[in-house]
Amino acid sequence: MSLTEQMSELASGSKKASRLLTRISTDDKNACLMAMASAIEDNSSTIQQANTIDMAAGREMGLSQAMLDRLLLTDERIAGMAAGLREVAELSDPVGRVLEKRERPNGLILRKVTTPIGVVVIIYESRPNVTADAAGLCFKSGNATILRGGKEALNSNQTIARLMVEAGQTTSADFPAESIQVVPTTDRAAIPELLAQTSHVDLCIPRGGEGLIRAVAECSRVPVIKHYKGICSVYIDSKADPQMAMDIAVNSKTHRPGVCNAMETLLIDKSAAQNLLPPLAAALTNKGVELRADEAACRIIGNGCKIASPEDWDTEYLDLVCAIRTVDGLDGAIEHINQHGSGHTDAIVTDDENAAARFQNEIDSSTVFWNASTRFTDGGQFGMGAEIGISTDKIGARGPMGLAELTSYKWLGMADGLIRE
Per-residue pLDDT for 209 more than 80? Predict the structure, then answer.
């Protein structure tokens, strides 16, 4: 069987499954999700055995420490996958919600009702926990999903998906096995072949670095929801509480540096830099962060600081590297972020409510925080259960994508023999 035929068969099976999913009740969906969560917990050792093989392959491939961290499945992360599935089960079913109702003078009654999108392809790198998150959210929202993780995570992804399908089939006789599928080949040519299946695939959501997302968007013939970069900034205002500023900046950068909501650029008001930068730089350095700063900031920080290049303001490091820049107050911070940011997540630390309001109003990003770490841009942290991804697009979904963002809608009309004159 050729690669084209293989991807056509995969997509065709998903389309059939997506139609069968419309028959599963909310109660049955929730029961399946709870069973999937238990299956993942009960088979933690099996998942970790598969992950051990992937970790070894990742080291042979020369993956960075940050990427290996994304690939690793610990007991805690496996428990987190199960907890995420249970949280999704507890959320309201997004399908069948009446968004709008109209009754026309001629007696035509119209309801705008949420529906599944259909078949969703998820393309992602390293993080195998995305397999459970994405499949669980798609299933709850009535969508079939095709998962294409990185070649380094194939064993982990296949094991997680298999356990979820087996749990679903055991729980509900109506559960279609092809509602959760993993692309079985690591051949990169499979992606354009799969994304050419316009009759079967309805949407693609890539998760990963800019190179992957651009490659997917350029080759896809189906709609793509994307964010190219996560160049997240934290701005420390002159009226920021020093300890709060330090806590938020260090957490934003070092909590998990290899993810898209980690801080890449630290901006600080010039008038506050002399007092705030030395202890803040020391705290970051103690966490192993390499500092690349403008000349003014480097003079204040002293030893251990490198002069930033123009490219540093536009770089998503996904590592323990931080660009630092002094700016002319709020106006300078807003100008820098709107010029160099990626529209993902930015934060201001200040006690000035007016400054915070201006920052949140004028920064053109999907999420803008006041006195909170950038690390909170996350479906779980937003109360969505798990998330399918984060979108920086402005048409359709924006920010963390949960259940509601995985639905479309249709109009249902009802009358009593009405005809149009």
Answer: no
**Cβ atoms of 268 and 235 closer than 8 Å:** yes
pLDDT in tens, 125-149: 878 999 999 999 999 999 999 999 9
For 309-367, the pLDDT digits (tens) are 999 999 999 999 999 999 999 999 999 999 999 999 999 999 999 999 999 999 999 99
Residue in 348, 368, 265, 366 with CA at minimum distance from that of residue 314: 265
